[in-house]
């Protein structure tokens, strides 16, 4: 559940000796760590746990650290002076002559010696200016200098440091700002020694709109202050399940505003008891508003309060002898009671909680995130970071994975007040930055009890199962890639780097011709690298000319040295398409041995395809039991799917908008208003002149012209 929490105003100049923070309220059986604001800084506060005999546990080694509190930051004027001095020094060094005897390492050490004692972000580069590592620091000088000590804690860190030929730093105003910048740089630069999580923050929400008769809807995207948003939810299924509950209990509408404002009789949802029928005034505005408020309370975890309100409402109707209305409220109470009974994961003690389980095995890691919103367990989602085996791990690899997840997942996003973890996590600087960002206390719980313990056990079990499945699938994927490399006589030394690009052409009788290019890399399809090409200037239906155009556009830049050349270029087609690809590659000076055509077999059945080569090699029929052919068929089918969906979208857009675009006086805005008002082109065609005049910007004369053009 997303709520606006006012960010506390923190002083710009924290005192040297922070005051004691107030501990969070927790059950005595749990072991939380709270990060609270204290004199402008967020400090960790551990809460002791008593055992069965009432004795406190032994203190863990290193638990009380003298440097847990962040150092006082310089005054703004001093900070600015330091920044200007540092900037001037670096500019002078860059402009001055470089001594021939100075090695790259000496230059790096000289730069490190000039770093200020300020928060910021640092970046390490190798001799080829490839980024190695991105990190943040509360004190740049101390943090960066620690990498160049004689005794390093990890051989992997020593390996990375040995490759550093250059470093760059960016000074920030606070550690929270450094956290955000570090997250953005990691996603943009993808450093070799950082743990990378896929940027998948588009979580779904349940939205309740504003207005006299608000509607609830499934929503993804940016949030605003005009509507109410509840979530985030881990999956679309969780949102739709919550919407079904609200339909059964509170009967809120889900129809679009354009449909709502044009109905003359109740829809099917009203007839089956899922909507109260506000579109035809079957419920008063005030009564509908009460239902909306109760639905919001339910989503916020205040189910008991909703139940009490409904019981009071039913009693009031009964006292006024309004038995039909009382019966309707009774049905709501019964539906709500069934829902609460079915919520086996429901609890009344928590509002918003995230349960995070980290499991590392076989060189891969899985982070399973379970979300609890409003006291309801909404499900979980598994994340699989990359570069785990190469990542810099100053602590245990599990802690490093968890730290990377917290930074990359929560930066700029909603952070619940309670995080339940399956490993002990002690990085006060990171939690300080997250606390400053969200503006409220963050409680870390490592030894949950009761319902929370069940949540954590389920999350950890889910992580173990997901990771086992991933490792199994990876083994299968690698075996298919190896089989294809052997079939095509490719160098199988580094299968992870094998890159395959596949092309397909799609059109409908020559209309809306589009070409697709899909990419297979790292044993998987790379959706972010897919491309579509609009094909123009050819005879409609000429697949050969379309293939020639897309291959030329794709590889003419590669031939000039700009772009990545794949190891295999798959062409969906027979000898004609392969010959066209051979001509393009010959003209561009590329290796025609990379071209492989996939000719369909009898009946277009998978397993009967033939591989055709452009360099004169004999065609191969691998058979339906071949793992290599299964991989080729998978890539070919994905290219076909991507091409045909793009073609259909392009065709539908052209057919929908073309008739309105041909009418003089109908621009993009008026066309959009017409389509939104009547739900599409068919609705515009069926509308009368009077109906068209009701649309903003449509005069009587223009409405008559629209009607005449469409009939």
Strand order of the largest sheet: 2-1-13-12-9-10-11
- Summed up, the helix count is 21
Low-confidence stretches: 1-29, 34-76, 89-101, 341-348
Radius of gyration equals: 31 Å
Provide the residue-averaged pLDDT. Answer: 77
Q: What's the total count of β strands?
A: 20
Report how far apart the termini are. 50 Å
- Residues in helices, as a percent range: 40-55%
Structural class: alpha+beta
Descriptive terms for the model:
seven-stranded mixed sheet, disordered N terminus, alpha+beta, 711 residues
Account of the protein in words:
- The protein is built from 21 helices and 20 strands.
- It has a seven-stranded mixed β-sheet with strand order 2-1-13-12-9-10-11, with helices on both faces. Strands 14, 15, 16, 17, 18, 19 and 20 form a seven-stranded mixed β-sheet that branches. Strands 4-3-5 form a three-stranded antiparallel β-sheet.
- It is globular, with a radius of gyration of 31 Å.
- Strand 12, helix 13 and strand 13 form a beta-alpha-beta unit.
- The chain is α+β, with helices and mostly antiparallel strands.
- Helix 14 packs across helix 17 and helix 15 (543-559) runs parallel beside helix 16 (575-588).
Outline the secondary-structure elements.
Elements (H helix, E strand, L loop, with lengths): L31 E7 L2 E6 L29 H20 L8 H10 L6 E6 L5 E7 L2 H6 L9 H9 L2 E6 L3 H15 L15 E4 L7 E4 L8 E3 L5 H14 L7 H4 L7 H4 L13 H15 L3 H17 L3 H20 L9 E10 L2 E10 L2 E8 L13 H14 L7 E4 L6 H11 L3 E4 L5 H37 L11 E10 L2 E11 L2 E2 L5 E4 L8 H17 L8 E5 L2 H14 L6 E5 L10 E4 L13 H35 L6 H11 L2 H6 L2 H5 L6 H11 L1
Parallel strand pairs: 9-12, 12-13, 14-18, 18-19
Antiparallel strand pairs: 1-2, 1-13, 3-4, 3-5, 6-7, 6-8, 9-10, 10-11, 14-15, 15-16, 15-17, 19-20
Helix pairs in contact: 5-13, 9-10, 10-11, 14-17, 15-16
């Amino acid at each position: 559940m997303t709520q606006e929490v006012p960010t506390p105003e923190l002083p710009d100049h924290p005192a040297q000796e922070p005051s004691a923070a107030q501990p969070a309220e927790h059950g005595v059986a749990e072991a939380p760590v709270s990060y609270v604001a204290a004199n402008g800084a967020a400090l960790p506060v551990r809460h002791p746990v008593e055992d069965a005999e009432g004795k406190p546990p032994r203190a863990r080694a290193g638990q009380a650290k003298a440097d847990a509190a962040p150092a006082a930051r310089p005054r703004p004027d001093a900070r600015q002076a330091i920044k200007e001095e540092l900037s001037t020094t670096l500019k002078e060094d860059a402009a001055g002559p470089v001594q021939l005897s100075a090695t790259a390492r000496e230059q790096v050490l000289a730069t490190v010696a000039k770093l200020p004692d300020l928060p910021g972000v640092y970046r390490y580069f190798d001799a080829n200016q490839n980024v190695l590592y991105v990190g943040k620091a509360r004190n740049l000088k101390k943090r960066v200098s620690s990498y160049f000590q004689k005794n390093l804690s990890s051989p992997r860190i020593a390996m990375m440091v040995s490759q550093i030929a250059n470093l760059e730093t960016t000074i920030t105003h606070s550690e929270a700002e450094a956290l955000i910048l570090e997250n953005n740089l990691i996603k943009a630069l993808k450093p070799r020694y950082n743990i990378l999580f896929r940027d998948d923050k588009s979580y779904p929400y349940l939205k309740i709109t504003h207005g006299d008769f608000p509607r609830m809807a499934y929503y993804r995207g940016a949030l605003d202050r005009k509507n109410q948003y509840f979530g985030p939810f881990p999956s679309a299924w969780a949102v739709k399940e919550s919407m079904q509950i609200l339909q059964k209990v509170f009967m809120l509408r889900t129809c679009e505003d354009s449909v709502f404002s044009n109905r003359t009789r109740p829809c099917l949802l009203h007839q089956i008891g899922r909507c109260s029928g506000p579109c035809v005034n079957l419920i008063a505005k005030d009564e509908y508003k009460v239902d909306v408020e109760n639905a919001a309370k339910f989503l916020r975890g205040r189910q008991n309060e909703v139940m009490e309100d409904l019981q009071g409402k039913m009693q009031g109707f009964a006292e006024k002898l309004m038995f039909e209305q009382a019966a309707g409220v009774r049905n709501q109470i019964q539906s709500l009671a069934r829902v609460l009974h079915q919520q086996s994961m429901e609890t009344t003690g928590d509002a918003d909680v995230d349960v995070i389980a980290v499991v590392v095995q076989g060189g891969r890691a899985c982070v399973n995130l379970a979300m609890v919103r409003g006291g309801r367990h909404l499900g979980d989602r598994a994340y699989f970071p990359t570069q785990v085996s190469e990542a810099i791990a100053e602590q245990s690899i599990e802690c490093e994975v968890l730290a990377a997840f917290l930074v990359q997942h929560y930066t700029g996003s909603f952070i619940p007040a309670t995080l339940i973890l399956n490993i002990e996590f002690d990085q006060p600087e990171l939690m300080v930055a997250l606390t400053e960002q969200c503006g409220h206390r963050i409680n870390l719980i490592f030894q949950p009890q009761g319902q929370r313990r069940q949540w954590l056990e389920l999350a950890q079990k889910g992580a173990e199962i997901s990771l086992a499945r991933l490792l199994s699938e990876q083994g299968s994927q690698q075996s298919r890639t190896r089989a294809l490399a052997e079939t095509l006589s490719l160098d199988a030394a580094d299968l992870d780097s094998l890159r395959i690009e596949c092309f397909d052409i799609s059109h409908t009788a020559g209309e809306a011709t589009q070409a697709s290019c899909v990419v297979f890399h790292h044993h998987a399809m790379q959706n972010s690298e897919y491309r579509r090409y609009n094909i123009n200037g050819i005879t409609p239906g000429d697949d050969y000319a379309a293939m020639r155009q897309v291959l030329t556009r794709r590889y003419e830049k590669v031939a000039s040295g700009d772009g990545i050349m794949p190891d295999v270029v798959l062409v969906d087609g027979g000898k004609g398409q392969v010959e066209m690809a051979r001509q393009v590659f010959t003209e561009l000076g590329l290796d025609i041995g990379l071209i492989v055509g996939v000719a369909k077999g009898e009946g277009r059945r998978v397993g009967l395809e033939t591989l055709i080569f452009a360099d004169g090699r004999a065609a191969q029929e691998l058979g339906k039991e071949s793992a290599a052919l299964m991989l080729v068929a998978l890539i070919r089918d994905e290219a076909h799917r991507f091409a045909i969906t793009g073609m259909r979208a392009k065709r539908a857009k052209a057919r929908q908008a073309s008739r309105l675009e041909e009418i003089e006086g109908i621009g993009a805005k008026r066309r959009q208003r017409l389509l939104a008002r009547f739900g599409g082109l068919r609705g515009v065609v069926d509308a009368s002149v009077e109906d068209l005049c009701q649309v903003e910007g449509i005069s009587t004369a223009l409405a008559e012209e629209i009607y005449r053009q469409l009939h």
